[in-house]
Amino acid sequence: MSHEILTVAQCYEADTFADGHGVRTLILMENAGRAIADEIVKRWTPRETVVLCGPGNNGGDGFVVARLLREHGWDVRVALLGKRADLKGDAGEMAKRWKGDVAAVSAKSLDGSELIVDALFGAGLSRPLAGVAADVARAANDSWQPIVAVDVPSGIQGDSGQAPDGICIHADLTVTFFRKKPAHVLMPGRFRCGVVVVADIGIADSAIDAIKPKLSENDPSLWQFPWPDPLKHKYARGHCVVVSGPAHQTGAVRLAARAALRVGAGLVSVASPPDAVPVNSASLTAIMVKPFDGAKELSQLLSDMRLNAVVIGPGCGVGKETRDLVKAVLATKAAVVLDADALTSFKDDPS
After folding, report:
1. Cβ(176)–Cβ(6) under 8 Å?
2. How far, rounded to the nearest angstrom, does the alpha carbon of residue 297 sit from its chain's CA centroid?
3. Looking at the domain assignment, is residue 349 inside a domain?
4. Which of 29, 67, 292, 343 gives a 20 to 30 Å CA spacing to 204?
5. Do both 125 and 244 map to the same domain?
6. pLDDT by residue for the chain (351 residues), tens digit each?
7. Alpha carbon 183 to chain centroid distance?
8. Burial environment of residue 96 by CB neighbours within 10 A (0 to 12, 13 to 18, 19 or more)
9. Are 115 and 148 in contact (CB under 8 A)?
10. What's this model's pTM, rounded to 2 decimal places?
11. How many domains does the chain have?
12. Range of the domain at 26
């Protein structure tokens, strides 16, 4: 499975790439709607369903879902935010293919429904939900009916995962396409999406090579744990150094050090300022404690090339001293993990 994360703009690029390589956007919309309908049929028995369609392509996906669920024998109603005649492009075409009635979206649209499909707004929404859309979102959340969101729950911004004014759909299932967006992994969007399914709608993986995304979701399949080889030296599995802060805040450092040991580092040391040496030494067994005092001594310690991975930040404190330590660590050839105070210390000058 691929773990790239695409911004909203990059998702548009992926659609354009597919269109330029023989997969028309209308086909992408049909495939998207089919993927959503398939996920619904897989999870629920036929029931009265309302599909809430918006004025854009998300609404077009919704019309496809409605048509395909009806073909499966489901009792489906469509409620549209706007006028059917105003729908343009692919969304307009999919609206024409829906042969049922179309009602105006309102909170009453949900009456009698046993499942709600949220196809009001997609990831590109940049404004808060308001008016009828906000009323429907509140009513849907209060209905306790299962909610399936198309791409992202309406009200969630695709690149930030935020819901302006806090109003958004709380979905049980979200079906997105090709790759996840930031909203699927960042809170509160991640929580509001429910279960996230990434569907293949016909965009070739070669689109990723053209787009060159910089974001990726962390996942165990990406981790490479060094498996011990009985014929190799412990340094073949690396020596991780975790930089400690002062004596009164060393707990997180020891947790990180134990984690490094557990996942397979050959050796692990805690680089400790003088006042923290006693507490770290008394609390650690299989992990060594290496004293240092200031950025210069940390640089000298890390000049040993066998110390090839460094974690710095947890419990270090925020300020100039931590910034100097971070710069000393980054000046080495070691692999570096920056966390917590190592990041916060640069909040006023992130570049």
Report:
1. no
2. 39
3. no
4. 67
5. no
6. 479 999 999 999 999 999 999 999 999 999 999 999 999 999 999 999 999 999 999 999 999 999 999 999 999 999 999 999 999 999 999 999 999 999 999 999 999 999 999 999 999 999 999 999 999 999 999 999 999 999 999 999 999 999 989 999 999 999 999 999 999 999 999 999 999 999 999 999 999 999 999 999 988 888 777 677 888 888 889 999 999 999 999 999 999 999 999 988 999 999 999 999 999 999 999 999 999 999 999 999 999 999 999 999 999 999 999 999 999 999 999 999 999 999 999 999 988
7. 6
8. exposed
9. yes
10. 0.80
11. 2
12. 4-218
Two structure tokens written together for 148: 């399936």
Cβ atoms of 217 and 248 closer than 8 Å: no
Q: What is the DSSP letter of 266?
A: S
For 157, phi and psi rounded to 5 degrees? -85, 130
Cα(40)–Cα(36) distance, integer angstroms: 6
Domain assignment of residue 350, yes or no: no
Residues linked to residue 216 through DSSP beta bridges, in sequence order: 4
| Rounded Cα distance, 220 and 12, in Å | 28
